[in-house]
Amino acid sequence: MLFPTATFALFFLLVLSVSWLLMHRVHRWRPFMIGASFVFYGWWDWRFVFLLAGCTLWNQMLAVRIWSAVDRRRRTLLLALALAGNLGVLGYFKYYDFFVSSSQSLASVVGVDLPLELKSIVLPVGISFYTFMAISYVVDAFRGDFAPTTLEKFAVYLSFFPHLVAGPIVRPAELIPQFDAPRDPRRVDTSRAFYLIATGLFKKVVIANYLAGAIVDDVFGAPEQHSSLELLIGVYAYAVQIYADFSGYTDMAIGLALLLGFTFPQNFDSPYAATSVQDFWRRWHMTLSRWLRDYLYVPLGGNRKGTIFTYRNLLLTMLLGGLWHGAAWTFVVWGGVHGVGLAAERWWRSRPGYVARPSTLWSRTWARVATFHLVCLAWIFFRADSFGSAWDILTGLFTRWGEGAPLVTSGVLLAIAVGIGSQYLPARVPRLVMARFSRLPLAGQAVVLALALMLTSTMGPEGVAPFIYFQF
């Protein structure tokens, strides 16, 4: 069920009404929200509801056992079992065909024929996101950071429909305590919620969908047929498309959760205004960045075991982060570009005698331009269907200047400018808009929202494309 559809609007209005009617009776609200979330998840394919339910039971059972176990060795074995179950399910659905085809290709190099069969397994929507949330739950129990809750609360946490299929990745301590008591409707920040939903819809429906149809799909679908200028603008357009698509979804998710009375962490903070790769990952998909840091980079040793191991850990974290995004070597290369960038920045700052220069407008501008283009270079591998396609784009960027560029229209350039330029707005601007909106009478707020939705519907292309991150 896609957010910007009439079906979801009816679903949410019903759930919102019943949710607030039951909120003062949390023992009834929780089963209702679990049921509503399962309906939401099963709308695409009802069979995967059983996978979500199984994941819930598996992790709850082992988290409780890990927490109650006294012996360190037993707790470690239980954690390993929990992780094996989660990663095993994720590996089967997401990586089985990838590993089979990769193994067959490697074996053929040495003249070995592996009798393995590709299965073309359908990837469940959102499995990467709720698997990572489940891993957070059992690892936090192992570390003693968060005591396992009841099965009912954990089921709400894992299946809560605003974050279920594409994040943000919410930690147990950030959401589960909010289920302990009824929410107060008088404390709901409706102005922020409506602002996030409206801007999220605009980013997804108008900017992301428009750029996908106007240039990105054509350029990445047949790069050899396009000029250097079209390829360059197509890469910029994809950078804006994926930002608008993903941040638009999570903005809507945060806004919907707010209307239900719950708070999610921020997931994007003007990533294309970043002045370094490290700064980019502090701003892009922030909940994933924190997850990779706390559950992968730190357990690998972080920066505690010397310079060489720090570089290794950075690279491994980003390579595995790339593989998490998709079952293809192009995603691994995408992660590798970021890993090398992070390691290079750390090496530069750790040189003997290095002294940070005072920040100036020129130095910040140069840093932002360089960081943005490194990120765009990585996006080529992220979006390309194959290494051959990525190579066609990279070579075409330098070899076909002077050819026609009919896809580079004023609309495309405007959408790119809006997508990037909006990230340089002062933080006070959205706060000012929300404050003024909140002071409007109820009828005035309704008129403003209706006009915003009408404008989004009018400017957006016909139909709603699936979100890029739905099947990651």
Q: Can you walk through the features of this model?
A:
The chain is an all-alpha fold and 472 residues long. It has 19 helices and no strands. The chain has helices spanning 6-22, 26-42, 48-68, 72-109, 127-143, 151-159, 161-164, 172-175, 190-221, 228-259, 277-283, 286-300, 307-325, 329-349, 361-383, 387-399, 410-421, 428-438, 442-459. Helix 3 (48-68) runs parallel beside helix 5 (127-143), helix 10 packs across helix 15 and helix 10 packs across helix 16. The longest helix is centred in the N-terminal third of the chain and has 38 residues, at 72-109. The two termini are 16 Å apart. The model has no long low-confidence stretch (mean pLDDT 90).
In short:
Helices cover 70% and strands 0% of the residues. The chain is built from 19 helices and no strands. The chain has helices at 6-22, 26-42, 48-68, 72-109, 127-143, 151-159, 161-164, 172-175, 190-221, 228-259, 277-283, 286-300, 307-325, 329-349, 361-383, 387-399, 410-421, 428-438, 442-459.
